[in-house]
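Design a sequence for this backbone.
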């Protein structure tokens, strides 16, 4: 439902942002379809970008007119970015360089920050071989870009020719079509039987089954940020123990302050240097938000789905 609500006003320590774009992430769809309502009325979406047009007490007037991108817009609060105006703590509105589009700004809070945190947890990458599951997906293509920049050899899994093309453009060295190829065997073939140094994983329910087949080297890291099955995912304890496998899980909405600070600083540097490719797969107006969610649910769009405020 699209309608009118009163314009928000920023409280102490807050800014108000006139939004130009809002990102539609898979987690936004999951919030709508499978999570309880947090309030009587919810404006969805975590990510967005726009210009600060008002500040609350304790915030410098110098921030008015600043181009910004937003993270955690609708995390533990009912009013997200699928709207024209949002008020939120000033730290959640991060400076957006002039050369970075508002559309790109709507891709950063979940996809890009997830990629940065996943790679930090995987450890040093220069000269190492990693597996990126879903390398042509929104988070995966950022992981692929950043890992290649850091000197890693990237093996990626993809589910379509279009996602393969995007992953290749982002720097993947070897690609496995998971719908038609034997993933574990291909990984072992590509690594001369020793496995990869790290796995950056979007679907633990599927990838966990590959660990017992030796795809990950002893003492390797498996970093998990998603799973298509959210509960009761079995693992082979013996194979994990014998190889001293490190399993690391994280939720991008809930980073500790130090990890968030490091991620924001790194991402800001990448944006200033114009080092990242931002893949926009589909654009919808705010009035077409239902169609935007359906596009994400379909899984057919390659790249980020973005709403624009017309």
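Sequence:
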């Amino acid at each position: 439902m699209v309608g009118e609500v009163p314009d928000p006003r920023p409280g102490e320590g807050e800014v108000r942002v006139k939004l130009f774009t809002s990102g539609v992430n898979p987690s936004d769809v999951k919030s709508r379809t499978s999570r309880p309502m947090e309030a009587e009325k919810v404006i969805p979406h975590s990510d967005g970008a726009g210009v600060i047009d008002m500040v609350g007490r304790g915030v410098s007037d110098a921030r008015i007119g600043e181009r910004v991108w937003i993270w955690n817009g609708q995390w533990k609060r009912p009013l997200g970015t699928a709207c024209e105006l949002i008020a939120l703590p000033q730290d959640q509105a991060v400076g957006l360089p002039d050369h970075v589009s508002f559309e790109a700004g709507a891709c950063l809070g979940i996809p890009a920050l997830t990629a940065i945190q996943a790679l930090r947890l995987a450890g040093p990458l220069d000269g190492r071989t990693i597996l990126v599951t879903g390398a042509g997906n929104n988070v995966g293509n950022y992981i692929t870009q950043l890992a290649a920049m850091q000197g890693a050899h990237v093996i990626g899994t993809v589910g379509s020719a279009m996602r393969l093309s995007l992953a290749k453009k982002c720097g993947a060295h070897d690609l496995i079509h998971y719908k038609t190829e034997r993933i574990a065997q291909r990984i072992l073939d590509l690594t001369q039987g020793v496995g990869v140094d790290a796995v950056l994983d979007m679907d633990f329910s599927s990838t966990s089954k590959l660990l017992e087949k030796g795809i990950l080297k002893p003492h390797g890291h498996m970093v998990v940020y998603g799973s298509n099955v959210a509960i009761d995912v079995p693992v082979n304890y013996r194979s994990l123990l014998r190889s001293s496998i490190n399993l690391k899980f994280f939720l991008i909405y809930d980073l500790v302050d130090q990890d968030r600070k490091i991620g924001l600083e790194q991402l800001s540097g990448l944006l200033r240097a114009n080092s990242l490719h931002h893949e926009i797969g589909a654009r919808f107006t705010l009035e077409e938000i239902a169609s935007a969610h359906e596009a994400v649910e379909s899984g057919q769009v390659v790249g980020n789905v973005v709403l624009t405020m017309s």
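The mean pLDDT is 95.
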